[in-house]
Amino acid sequence: MQDYIETLKRAVPDPRAVIDDMHDAGDAVVVVVEGRFAGTFTGPLASPDGDNDPTGAVVDLRFADVSRARGGRIVSYHTYYDQLGLLTKLE
Fold first, then answer.
1. CB-based burial label for 12 (10 Å; 0-12, 13-18, 19+)
2. Euclidean distance between CA atoms 57 and 87, whole angstroms
3. CA 41-34-82 angle, 5° bins
4. What pLDDT score was predicted for residue 90?
């Protein structure tokens, strides 16, 4: 996860997460955060085929994070976002 975040931060060094809404299951065992990831593609983006050159494109993608907790600790965390939309912005 840390490698993924570092790769994304290298490509979009001015990231902002804008939280639009948060939901919980009442007992806070499951928390869902809906938002947007925004920034500018000004750095190289690593890919299996090598680095993609920056385009200066503005990135503004919706995401949803789902966290599950047990005993006061997060035991799973998943992020869902429009990967195709991101790749389209980076061309």
1. buried
2. 11
3. 45
4. 66
Query: pTM of the prediction?
Result: 0.71
Task: Tell me the residue range of the domain where 18 lies.
Answer: 2-89
Digit-by-digit pLDDT tens for the chain (91 residues) are 678 778 888 988 998 989 999 888 766 689 999 999 899 999 998 888 888 889 899 989 899 999 998 888 889 999 998 888 877 776 6
Per the structure block, which two tokens stand in for 39?
Answer: 């920034």
Q: How many domains does the chain have?
A: 1
Query: What three-state secondary structure class fits 37?
Result: strand
Residue with tokens 């975040």: 5
Pull the structure tokens for residue 18. 């804008």
Q: In this structure, what CATH number is given to the domain that contains residue 7? A: 3.10.450.50
In whole angstroms, give the CA distance from residue 78 to residue 58.
24
